[in-house]
Write a structure and sequence with these properties.
The structure is a single chain. Helix content is 33%, strand content 5%. The chain is mostly helical. A 4-stranded mixed beta sheet has the order 2-1-3-4, with helices on both faces. Helix 1 runs parallel beside helix 3, helix 1 crosses helix 7 and helix 4 packs antiparallel against helix 6. It binds glutathione. Glutathione (GSH) binds next to loops. It comes from Streptomyces gibsoniae.
Length: 336
Amino acid sequence: MGDGNSAYGKKKFKRSRSHFADRITADGRDGWPVTEGRYRLVACRACPWASRAVISRRLLGLEDALSMGIVDPIQDDRSWRFTLDADGRDPVLGIRFLSEAYDARETGYPGGVSVPAIVDVPSGQLVTNDFQQITLDLATEWTALHREGAPDLYPERLRDEIDDVMHGVYEDLNNGVYRAGFATNQKDYEEACTAVFHRLEWLSKRLAGQRYLVGDTITEADIRLFTTLVRFDPVYHGHFKCNRWKLAEDPVLWAYVRDLFQTPGFGDTVDFDHIKRHYYEVHTGINPTGIVPLGPELAGWLSAHGREELGGHPFGDGTPPGPVRPGEEVPASGRP
Ligand SMILES: N[C@@H](CCC(=O)N[C@@H](CS)C(=O)NCC(=O)O)C(=O)O
């Protein structure tokens, strides 16, 4: 399991490894060749790991190539469900629970059901739930189906640096907030929370003089940082007790995350309503009343950030993605 209530008990929070790690590649070496229209991405807009894939798909213009289903932000005891769709069924896969795709792949699979997941539409089988690999493959293996003007999100010459930055950000921040939030003793909490804020300080210094994390264009590293930062004040600050300061109190990081939020492909995928309801309602172990806080105010997300002055080209030699595909818009309830 990922971050469901069963993921923490008396022990240290430990994120489970993705069980299904087949890769969809240009040469199809795992039996899953990149093919237009064959696969469906199943995501939850509340989930930071799934949201990476939602953003990459949009930036790369893969909407026609890889369709997308969005699950209800609230799981029940059968995990992720398609209750946002008519009749509670995913219109393409015809299933009510994501677990049905896991079962189709492996009978009696004893592990947890997690998003993001990519499902093979013809067979209804799950192909992968490997959240660390999915976006890298969208960027590097699906190139034949990228839109014209798609950015290179994982440029070869910068891979070592991107990997290095992403590793530290994952340990201390992406996953660090979960370690803080699900800690069951003071020491584990303090260690995790301290690492979160050290990493934020490091990031703030790095981003004071450069618009993006690595190089002068948006890369995979920015996507992975964004999906954590956008959740910071709405959930990690309160719900996960990462509350030494709010992101909005750090001028550099607050401007950085608003810059990305306002870049097509980022903010237009974010549903603050799903985010808040998922964390506060689902994790009853740490929020037993399930009350969802009213704040923070969201209007600030659209205010000027001034980061253009740092130079850089968001899409390199490419162009921004076009409008959100009809039917995939975030409802007004989740937008600033
Ligand atoms: N596949 C990984 C990472 C992805 C992940 O944690 N996704 C979360 C949502 S943010 C999830 O689906 N967790 C399963 C659950 O909470 O039931 C895992 O299972 O830990």
